[in-house]
Specification:
With 154 residues, the protein is an alpha/beta fold. Helices cover 39% and strands 25% of the residues. The chain has a five-stranded parallel beta sheet, sandwiched between helices. Helix 4 links the parallel strand 6 and strand 7 (101-104). It starts with 5 loop residues before the first strand and ends with a strand. 21% of the residues are buried. Bound molecules: calcium ion (CA).
């Protein structure tokens, strides 16, 4: 069974959300969408494992920075912030809130894909500079597969 990385896109603007979903799916990712705090928390608390979150900092009435803090209180899932606020002070505050990377809007989808790949690579178990020995840490049992190294069961 092939495990696709699961990206949660948090964005209140439908067109941006759809564009991200289409491009991420085309790149082979499984994609879920959230448009506000409630749908974000619902997705995080579902049983579906999330590998990375892209978080829009301008979420209508929601304050994206506070959402980042709320996510960080619950989980270490990597966060990439996307925002039109590109002042250094805003970038710093985003990183202080626990973001792993930061992309200014408008962005090129190519940059988003490359940064997602880079962040996911950092969170993949393995020795730096070597391919992670996934074949050694993946056990097949019954119909499911357990990846002990990533503590993922699917
Ligand atoms: Ca927005």
């Amino acid at each position: 069974m092939h495990h696709r990385k699961h990206i949660l896109v948090v964005e209140d603007e439908f067109l941006v959300r759809r564009m991200l979903r289409q491009n991420l799916e085309a790149a082979g990712y499984q994609v879920s969408e959230a448009h506000d705090r409630a749908s974000l928390m619902e997705c995080l608390h579902s049983t579906n494992h999330v590998d990375l979150i892209t978080l829009d900092l301008s979420l209508g009435k929601e304050e994206g920075l506070e959402l980042a803090s709320a996510i960080r209180q619950q989980t270490n899932i990597p966060i990439i912030m996307l925002t039109a606020r590109v002042a250094p002070r805003d970038r710093i505050e985003g990183l202080e809130r626990g973001a792993d990377d930061y992309i200014g809007k408008p962005f090129l989808i190519r940059e988003v894909l490359l940064r997602i790949e880079a962040v996911l690579r950092r969170y993949t178990p393995g020795v730096k500079g070597q391919d992670p020995p996934t074949s050694l840490s993946v056990y097949r049992c019954g119909l499911g597969t357990a990846d002990v190294g990533k503590r993922q069961f699917y």
